[in-house]
């Protein structure tokens, strides 16, 4: 996962400015001193609107300690007085936000680093195919729901064919996710394979392929229409 390395000018702490994780997965937050300091204790905190909440601490004497009620939610992945990382399991919306790592030293007090956790999720793609009489063709619709806003792309797997009347719409859901729907018209006489690819931030690209039935030939349709009129 690519992310920027952020160095706090005061604390001289190297950490990831933003950590992305999928909803339901685990996230790893880490801090490291760029220079060796005489550290007594390392503390992890969650930054709240009304202050900070202590999550876990580490000292050489007592080892690692996670706050009561959070033992199943988080733990230290790597621990030392110069470098420390914490794992948050099954991350949910309430885990999103910023965290602080504090290196408490004898001579310099608390050396503080910041890192922020952001979540992403992706559901789809979902494809639907229907017939259009005017203009004639097959209407292919593909959708995906996620956050941040997912990218939805329709493609025709035939080099001599392409979509027309391409349109994309967005709808924001009550849970903060966004549903993106892309619709296009395919005019092909024979059956044609089309694909829909969806992606969102750090999630792996997902693709779904379907075969779209071809249009009936005009001559065949004309013969059936003539028979109907002669009855």
UniProtKB/TrEMBL annotation:
Domain of life: Eukaryota
Membrane topology, as annotated: Single-pass membrane protein
InterPro entries: Ig-like_dom (IPR007110), Ig-like_dom_sf (IPR036179), Ig-like_fold (IPR013783), Ig_sub (IPR003599), Ig_V-set (IPR013106), OX2G-like (IPR047164)
GO MF annotation terms: cell-cell adhesion mediator activity
SMART domains on file: IG
Signal peptide (UniProt feature, chain positions): 1-21
Keywords: Disulfide bond, Glycoprotein, Immunoglobulin domain, Membrane, Signal, Transmembrane, Transmembrane helix
Pfam family, one: V-set
GO annotation, biological process: heterotypic cell-cell adhesion; negative regulation of neuroinflammatory response
GO CC terms of this entry: axon; cell surface; membrane; neuronal cell body
Protein name, UniProt field: Ig-like domain-containing protein
Organism, as annotated: Poecilia latipinna
């Amino acid at each position: 996962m690519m992310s920027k390395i952020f160095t706090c000018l005061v604390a001289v702490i190297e950490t990831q400015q933003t950590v992305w994780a999928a909803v339901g997965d685990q996230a790893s937050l880490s801090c490291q001193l760029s220079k060796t300091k005489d550290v007594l204790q390392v503390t992890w905190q969650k930054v709240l609107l009304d202050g900070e909440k202590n999550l876990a601490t580490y000292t050489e004497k007592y080892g690692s300690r996670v706050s009561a009620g959070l033992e199943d939610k988080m733990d230290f992945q790597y621990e030392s007085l110069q470098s420390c990382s914490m794992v948050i399991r099954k991350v949910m919306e309430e885990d999103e936000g910023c965290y602080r790592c504090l290196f408490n030293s004898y001579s310099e007090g608390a050396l503080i680093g910041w890192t922020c956790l952001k979540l992403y999720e992706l559901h789809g793609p979902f494809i639907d195919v229907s017939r259009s009489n005017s203009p004639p063709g097959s209407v292919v619709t593909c959708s995906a729901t996620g956050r941040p806003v997912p990218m939805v792309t329709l493609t025709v797997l035939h080099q001599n064919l392409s979509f027309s009347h391409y349109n994309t719409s967005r709808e924001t859901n009550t849970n903060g996710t966004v549903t993106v729907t892309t619709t296009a018209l395919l005019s092909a006489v024979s059956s044609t394979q089309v694909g829909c690819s969806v992606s969102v931030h750090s999630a792996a690209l997902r693709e779904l392929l379907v075969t779209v039935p071809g249009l009936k030939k005009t001559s065949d349709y004309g013969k059936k229409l003539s028979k109907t009129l002669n009855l």
